[in-house]
């Protein structure tokens, strides 16, 4: 039952969608302005951090799907 007449069913972003947005903000605000000052090692580290964040988002999305009951049966024990 919804008691707020102005309530609209809003899209709740997945963990992957949130992570994509967060990484975009980090890139636009921090990385892009610093590109000329970053060493090759800095770029490699940032790439690894980005990969790790994507991995976390994928696992969180799988957990969300598991809780909703929408995870593919091949991923369940």
Measured between the Cα atoms of the first and last residue, the distance is 36 Å
What value does the Rg take, in angstroms? Answer: 18 Å
SSE ordering: HH
**Overall helicity:** 55-70%
Total discrete domains: 1
Number of strands: 0
Q: Which shape, going by the Cα principal axes?
A: flat
Q: How much beta, percentage-wise? A: under 5%
Task: List the uncertain runs.
Answer: none
**Structural class label:** mainly alpha
Summarize the entry for a quick read:
The protein is built from 2 helices and no strands.
Distinctive features:
single chain; 77 residues
Can you put this structure into words, describing what you see?
The chain is 64% helix and 0% strand. The chain has 77 residues and is mainly alpha-helical. The longest helix is centred in the C-terminal third of the chain and has 29 residues, at 40-68. It is flat and about 55 Å long. The model has no long low-confidence stretch (mean pLDDT 86).
């Amino acid at each position: 039952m919804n008691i707020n007449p102005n309530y609209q069913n809003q899209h709740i972003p997945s963990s992957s969608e949130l992570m994509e947005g967060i990484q975009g903000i980090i890139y636009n605000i921090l990385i892009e302005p610093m590109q000329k000052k970053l060493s090759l090692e800095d770029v490699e580290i940032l790439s690894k951090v980005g990969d790790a964040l994507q991995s976390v988002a994928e696992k969180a999305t799988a957990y969300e799907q598991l809780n909703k009951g929408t995870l593919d049966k091949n991923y369940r024990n």
